[in-house]
Design goal:
23% of the residues lie in helices and 26% in strands. By secondary structure, the chain is α+β, with helices and mostly antiparallel strands.
Length: 374
Amino acid sequence: MATLDVVIPAVGESITEVVIGKWFKKNGESVRMDDMLCELETDKATMEVNAEQAGILEIVVPEGTTVAVGALVARIQTDAAEGGPASDAPAAAPAAAPAMPSAPSAPSAPSVPPASSAPLASTSVAPASNRPDPIVRSSAPAGPQRRERMSQLRKTIARRLVAVKNETAMLTTFNEVNMGPLMEMRSRYKDSFKERYGVGLGFMSLFAKAVCLALREFPVINAGLDGEDLVYHDYVDLSIAVSAPRGLMVPVVRGADHLALHEIEREIARLAGKAREGTLSVDEMAGGTFTITNGGVFGSMLSTPIINAPQSAILGMHNIVERPIALQGQVVIRPIMYIALSYDHRLIDGKDSVSFLVRVKEFLEDPYRMLIEI
């Protein structure tokens, strides 16, 4: 009987094992070429394994199992008729579910003696009717529950966030940006920008440009710690946090400090699209020297973003809301965004962090100076 082995492919230089997240086909089920067989989970991403030939699937490794790269996880009987199970390979019967232990019976209520036989209360003890009734707390759930296995990606995110909180001296500084000038410039040129470059002019590329220019003046914000060494990066590989169906992804725009606005827009759009499709490679998320995250798309007014280790700082964008501000001695209404910079105080002083955020604010409130970089 001809069979094809399904093995775990190489997924990145630093990844030696993966978790079988989900089988999309059942044991004994007919599969066609290029059908999605299973989903693999790693510390950084998820990826899919497709059938290289048609046949009948024999699953060797169940969901939730950690396996090494190159390990055998399934076989495909390639000489079986496509479109249905082979006559000599019936579908495996599902394993019987383990019997659940019966719920412990509720403790019986203590018996209460008849009133005639109850002892008389001492005059030195308050009457029972004046005592508060004991509070009975039930351990039973208040409503329906369901459990899902935490994905490998979610486990890694949780572990890294806790590590950052515990291993860095993280502080956050805040400022506000009058987004009026930036919105006016974007509105004025967005049509001609899209006509010329084929991509829209979004706020993220403008923020990315402001960050790259400010990092030139404050290189320590773009630096990192390696043991007892302070490592300065003479380039900006800009990480952009993207919310994807499978969790938070942080792809990297390489050499963002040398890209024009339309080039940044194209790269962000490409990476965000791959994140939504679940096709980002490990290399596309590796590295990064500084991160921008935008909670404003979900309505966040203000937050303290957590550093994306091993980086030393992260900029948080938020929603734009019309608010009253003082401008030239007058109270006026302007579209305001609060921005936040979280940073590792072990290597970044307050002076540099605050000055960097002020510089970003200045670029955004006078966006034309970004184009001539002054």
